[in-house]
Design brief:
Order of helices and strands: EHHEEHHEEEEEHHEEEEEEHHE
Strand order of the largest sheet: 1-2-3-5-4
CATH topology of the largest domain: Phosphatase 2c, domain 1
Number of helices: 8
Number of domains: 2
Helix content: 25-40%
Radius of gyration: 19 Å
CATH class of the largest domain: Alpha Beta
Length: 335
């Protein structure tokens, strides 16, 4: 199944909450969740959406498949006042509006994984993942958002993540143009990536190049995350940054070229990825000036919320936009 673009619902009235809940139920079914899980997804979307409607400004609910499969992700972002007492807000029964107040407490109880951050005067970011029973827990060390340009239902941007042995490999694709043809190109690239994402990165990029030869082509950046480092290989205007708690460092984006048409000789660039830092890869639908914001709150976000923050706050809505985030892998030791 090829992923559709992330669906977004602007929560500016109560009926938008119901639309988002219905969308979450349908997506849960499409992603293979069975039994009561689709209804639980609808409850999570309804609770997060209702919280936006009651307390926030500029609130949007985002729905998409979980980045590593097995379920769905429901995320909320706003530019509201933030929460003064976050832990208190996460308790069942707590309300500041005189309502039942089960919202965020219910979300934390229902979701397989739930993460939330808030800043006074800035707003709140929340991400809930619901996975099928028996599926490995949704690790919060990777995040993705893929949005079609305003007015479009099809998207020429896409991304994917795969665990490849002791590493994790990801691809971000920005097909040239817009609409149905660009989406077809992006999907062809994704199919080539998924055949064997564990290949050496130059070989993997060459496989994408071969798959896209009879198309307009695409900008592509491959990333492979190891313990303590990340490797990059690509061509075209897909950008990379390394975000640490105190700074943003520009990473080795691909050289000029078009995968599928005129691609330079693939080269791999390795950069250190220290504990607590996050690798960010995004297309030109994300404003490239975002690193200049120098916001400690942004720099300290976990990967799912960092991807959400960039898509929500720094998106150029006239273009398709994709952002992918990942932390350094941690080696597990047998005892």
């Amino acid at each position: 199944m090829h992923p559709a673009p992330t669906r977004s619902f602007r929560i500016d009235h109560d009926s938008a909450v119901h639309l988002a809940a219905a969308g979450a139920r349908t997506l849960a079914q499409r992603c293979g969740l069975r039994g009561a899980m689709p209804e639980r997804a609808a409850v999570v979307a309804s609770e997060l959406g209702s919280n936006l409607a009651k307390h926030a400004a500029g609130g949007i609910l985002y729905l998409q498949p979980a980045p590593l499969g097995g379920g769905i992700e429901i995320a909320a972002a706003d530019r509201g006042p933030g929460m003064a007492e976050l832990e208190r807000c996460l308790r069942d029964g707590y309300s500041t509006t005189g309502t039942l107040g089960s919202g965020l407490g219910a979300v934390r109880r229902i979701a397989t994984d739930f993460t939330i951050r808030t800043e006074r005067g800035t707003g709140t970011l929340a991400c809930a993942r619901l996975l099928a029973p028996g599926h490995p827990a949704a690790r919060l060390d990777v995040g993705t958002v893929c949005l079609a340009a305003d007015g479009e239902t099809q998207c020429g941007d896409t991304c994917a993540v795969a665990d490849t042995g002791a590493s994790r490999t990801a691809v971000v694709i920005d097909a040239l143009g817009h609409g149905a043809h660009a989406e077809e190109v992006a999907r062809s690239g994704l199919t080539a990536f998924r055949r064997d994402p564990s290949m050496p990165l130059p070989e993997l990029l060459s496989a994408l190049h071969k798959a896209l030869r009879r198309s307009r082509g695409a900008a592509v950046l491959l990333m492979r995350v190891h313990e303590g480092s990340a490797e990059f290989c690509g061509a075209g205007n897909v950008r990379c940054q390394i975000v640490s708690p105190d700074r943003v460092t520009h990473g080795p984006s691909g050289p000029p070229g078009i995968v599928g048409w005129k691609m330079p000789l693939p080269k791999v660039h390795r950069v250190p990825l220290t504990p607590g830092s996050v690798a960010v890869v995004h297309t030109d639908g994300i404003d490239p000036r975002w690193p200049g914001a120098r916001r400690p709150f942004l720099h300290r976000l976990p990967p799912p919320l960092l991807a959400l923050a960039l898509a929500h706050g720094h998106r150029l809505s006239r273009d398709d936009a994709t952002v992918l985030t990942a932390t350094a892998l941690r080696r597990t030791h047998d005892h």
